[in-house]
From TrEMBL:
It comes from Mycolicibacterium hassiacum (strain DSM 44199 / CIP 105218 / JCM 12690 / 3849) (Mycobacterium hassiacum). Pfam families: NAD_binding_10. Gene3D superfamilies: NAD(P)-binding Rossmann-like Domain. It comes from the Bacteria. SUPFAM superfamilies: NAD(P)-binding Rossmann-fold domains. Signal peptide: none annotated. This is NAD dependent epimerase/dehydratase family protein. GO terms for molecular function: protein-containing complex binding.
Amino acid sequence: MRILVTGATGYVGSRLVGALLDEGHEVVAASRNPVRLQAFGWADRVHGVALDAHNAEGARHAFADNGPIDVVYYLVHGIGQPGFRAADNRAAATVAEAAAAAGVRRIVYLGGFVPDDEKLSEHLASRAEVAEALTVDGGPDVVWLGAAMIIGSGSTSFEMLRYVGDRFPVMPMPGWSTNPIDPISIRDVLYYLVAAADPDRVPAGAYDIHGPETTTYAGLLRSYARIAGKWRAELPLIGLDTGLVSVVTSVVLPVPGGLAADLVESLDHPMMASETGLRSLLPDPPGGLIGIEEAIRRALASRRRRPVDKLADPHHLADTDPDWAGGDTLRLRTLAAPLTPSFARPTLGLLGLMPGPVAAAVRTGLDVLVGLVPKGRTA
């Protein structure tokens, strides 16, 4: 099929492009700034197109000027940006209307779980509203895949878990940290996304995707610390709401503040998959779904950044993932390597022996010194 991927420069989108190419599809990679596409290892294997989901006329031209499209993957979001909820709704409607006018048959949208709570965070409420906005009369059918936390280096939610586990010798455990969650590995996300393009395999509708295990956010922190070889004490906290934690998180973690805050506020809800899932329609990936601890091990096995199409495992860190991703030790090695003589570079491995809080302080100071401006958007 001929497939257009919006959000192709994001975390999921950049890996999805490679997975679609491996399946033999023709890929049109969309970005507001097509020049950015040249940084990705698959750039010479795709057709790049300028598409700004917030510009209706530009979106129509993007479809009209680039030939027939069978399927559109919608991976655009503005979480972390002021007023993102309303802006995301308008952007989804804009792309859906342009796709309908161009005769696109299907839109595949990756969103999040939406709990049955009366009061949802802005992030969770927005995910459901975007799915609704993508559905237009006479337009493409829509497949909405909902996922909770995606485990893999470069994933915003995993990077937040990493930094909490690395930087806090005493891990805070608020009451809501015991809410259940059904995480999923990035390998399995890509498997389900690729399958969702085929109407013979996946009928239109909403489906939750998840890994083989249910845990809690506290359980994820414990698993991360154990696999990373870090001893961490726990501090139960009663009455600490996500609003306060989101403010603290945006200050003490290198993840862009608005993005971190919006994600933390979503932790106030159970993140369990509904009974409507793709496991009832599709066989599991070869070798089975990847469990939580194996996914974390794969993510932590990433020692340096590589081109996204050359990753040995999609859990590894790509050279196009955000600069703030990958952990404090990797960031310190990256900053120090150009200043270290080649014969002495093996000694940079000793940075891994630096205590987490110390590495965090040094990394923060160096980032300020070099004027690091974090990339604030991942999909």
